[in-house]
Structure formats: C-alpha cells, structure tokens
Hints:
With 334 residues, the protein is of the alpha/beta class. The chain contains 15 helices and 11 strands.
Amino acid sequence: MSNVDSFQKQAQEFCQRYHQVKDEVGKVIVGHDDIVHGVLTCLMIGGHCLLEGAPGLGKTLLVSTLSEVLSLDSNRIQFTPDLMPADILGTNMVTETLDGKRSFQFQKGPIFTQICLADEVNRATPKTQSAMLETMQEGTVTVGGETYRLKRPFFVLATQNPIEQEGTYPLPEAQLDRFLFKLIVGYSNRKELSEILERTTQGGAAEINPIMDGDEILKWQKMVREVILAEHLRDYIVRLVIATHPQGAHATDITNQYLRWGASPRGAQAIALAAKVRALLEGRFNVSFEDIRGVYLPAMRHRVVLNFEAQAESISADQVLLEILDSVKEKVDV
C-alpha cells in the first residue's frame, strides 16, 4: 500500500470515528452541532475551549456526556469569588503515620482529571484564574516546588456568562490566548426546544455507549499534526493573522480603525491545526483554503482586542475579523 493510500485510509477512519463520537453525544445534546463540532475539534488537537453563553444551555451536560462517550475522567469546578488556587490545584497536608511521625503529603485538587469543566471561570479572582495557566499550557501542576504531570489527554472546557458582569473578573488576554477556540452558544430553535422537552420531561434517559478512550484520542492528536499544510496555505494563515496587527505593514483599514491589539502566533497555530482536523473530516490529508476560512472565527475572536471606538459603536470582534477575512487575498504575488 502506498503512502497516499495509507493516509487516505487513516483520514477515512478518523472521520468515521469522529462522527461516531458526535452521533453518540447527539443522543443527549439537541442541536448545537457547531458547538459540539468545535469542542471535539479542540479535543482532537489537544487544545482547550471557551464557551460563552447564557445559563441553562447545556454546557455542563455536554461535558458530562463527553466524559462518558470518551471514557475519560471528568471534574467540574464552579468558580466563585472566594475560590483559592489551592481549591483547584490541591495542597500539601500534614499527615501522621501509625508510629506518630508527621510528614507533608500532597492532596490533589479537582484539576487532576482529563476533562475539566471550569464553570463561570470569570467569576474567580485573577489570582485564582492564573492557577489555570500552567495546567492549560504545560499540562502540569507545581505546588511547594514539586511538579506533578496531569494525565493525558487533558482538556479544559471553560464557560463564561456574557450577561451578568457584576462581580466578575474578565479573563486576561494571556489566559484567553491559551484557549484554542472560543465558541458562542446560542439559543435553541423551535424544533430543538420541542425535542429537548420531549427528551427531558417524559422520564426516558438516553443510553450512552463509550466510543473512544484516551489512547485513541492521543493517536488522533498525533495524526492531525501529520496532515499536509502547503507553503502557500501557511502563508495565507500568516497574512490573516498579521492583518490583525494595528499599524502593521499588512493591517487593513478596519484593523487600524477598530483594533487595539492583534492576534499572537498562537492564533496562527490554532488556525493551522483546526484546519487540519477539518481537512480530515472531508476525507483529505491536505489543508484547503476553505478549511482555513471555516475555522478562522472561533480560533481568532478571543485573540483580538477592540479599541474604544469599536466599543462605542458596538462593533464586535466577529464583524472586524470577517471584514479582514474578506479583504485578505488567498494568493499573492511574491
């Protein structure tokens, strides 16, 4: 079998297994296909996901369902203003042996899991929020000079409520940048809401079957990085990202007018990896322009900072990014 045939077979297998997971999640989660797709994309890359939406839209249910379908451990951390870093990471406790000797023993916190739901993460203080930075970037926890490695795959799904901003602490840009995607959870439509009522008020419960385990997820995460990204497509991603840098050589007019800060290199990495997943789901082992455009918004919307003029005119990051996407050409003469 040639390499091309082997790659094609792997892409088809990935697509089949991915949709099996998605369909199993769909037994519980009604609608929100783009949200489920975005969360699974982050998981298959090894990144983290930020969900923004009103309460009661099924974010917590999505995490618990995922943990069952993927045979992974899960924990939920409810972020509150009085939550301390030790409540997340764990702490050294004094323990006493049977012969009366005392020693410190590390008691692991709820972050020691594989799928962690950080619920209303913007309600905790910046000191507590910062406790998540090391875990999200390096997959480790350092307490008392000792470093503990988290079990892989490790996935943080954080939520924030855009409505109630009283008593909240907006996530700093450094932490937002650690999320691969930011997904906006909208309301269910008439048909979906009717189905939710039918499923949840008539006593029946869907039977969830485990589809994939951690080892298989790690295998797919490795394969995603092997998908081919041609040089001209890599250049397109680079130009899309640097077009968000105000006053830069490639900045567009709307960039200079409405943005205060542009995206970091992590934005380019997120687009490239997510585009590779999208290519595999189309049965291809190479990225296309359409793949890049399809993942641009969720990978970038949380990485740009609007200026005062944009806020005063109620211009959203999505509006600015879509105009940038339209203005940047796919191919340019070198």
